[in-house]
Description:
Radius of gyration: 18 Å
Number of strands: 14
Shape: globular
Order of helices and strands: EHEEEHEHHEEHEHEHEHEHEEEHH
Largest sheet: 8 strands, parallel, barrel
Structural class: alpha/beta
Distance between the termini: 34 Å
Strand order of the largest sheet: 1-2-5-6-9-10-11-12
Amino acid sequence: MSATKKTIISCAITGALNIPTMSPYLPITPDEIIESAIGAAEAGAAAIHLHVRVPETGEPSNSVELMSQVYHGIRARSDAVLCITTGGVLGSPVSERVAAVPVLKPELASLNAGTMNFCLQPIAKRLDNPRFDWERPFVESTYDMHTRNTFANMEEYIRIMQENGTKPEFECFDIGMIENVAYFIRTGLLKTPVYLQFIMGTMGGIGASVDNLYYMYNAACHIIGRENFIWSTGAGGKEQFNMCTTALLLGGNVRVGIEDNVYLKRGVLAKTNAEQVEKMRLLAETLDRDIATPSEAREILGIPQLS
C-alpha cells in the first residue's frame, strides 16, 4: 500500500444535500461560499470542491452564473485547485449539471460514477421548525428519488470534460462504480491514472466503516490496478474524520467540509470549513503525512500548473 508523497486535503464547501436548518454556518450566498473557500485554502486545503445555492433560500442550484461568480471570486484570491460539481441538483438533467464545465474549463469536475439512490428522508424526522419552506418537501422527496448516471451519461460527461481540459474526479459511492470507471479505461476513453473519490456513508451507497473503506481501496487495486489511480476519501456525517484518518493510514488523500458533515466534533457545529481543514491537517501531521500545496496537488493529480 504505497502512499502518495504528500497528502491532498480537499474541502467541500456547501454541497447540495445538507439543508440550512442543519447549521446556521452552512455557506449559502456567493460571498459566503467564496470567503469559506478562501479560509479553507488558507488553512491547508489544496483543493476546493464547489456547489452553489440560491442566495435567498439556500436551495441547491445549477446556475452557471452563480458558479462563475464563485469560481472567479476564489481564483482571484487563491491558487487552490478548483473542482466544480456536476452532481448539482438531484434529479436535474445532464445538460444542466454539466453546463458550467465548457464555460469555466475548471481543472477538476466531479463525475458521479453510476446511478444510485440518494436518500435524505430520515432528516425529516428532526425538522421541527425548518428555516425554509422547501426543506421538508426536499428531504422527503428523496425517499423516492435516484440520481441518474447511465453509461451514456457518464460518457457524455467524460467527453465534455476532456474537450475542455478538465480532469474528472470520479465520485464512487459503491464498488460497482469502480467497475464503471474501469470500463471506460478498457474502451480507451479514459487515460490513467484516474482520480477516484470514495464517498462513504451516503444512504443508498456504501456505509462508512473501516472494513468498507479498505474493501473499496482493495477493489480498486484489483479492478483498475494500483498504479492506475489516485484516490481520496470523504464521508458523510459523524464518521467523516474516522474515515479520513483511515484513508491516511492506507496512503490516500482526504476530503472534509461542511458539505459532508456540519459538525467539528460530537455536538459541536463547525463554524467554518477552515476549522475542519485545520483538524484534518493536525491529524495528518500527527501521522507524519506532509500536506500538499496546490502546486504539489496539481503534480500528484497530473493536471497543468496555473500559468
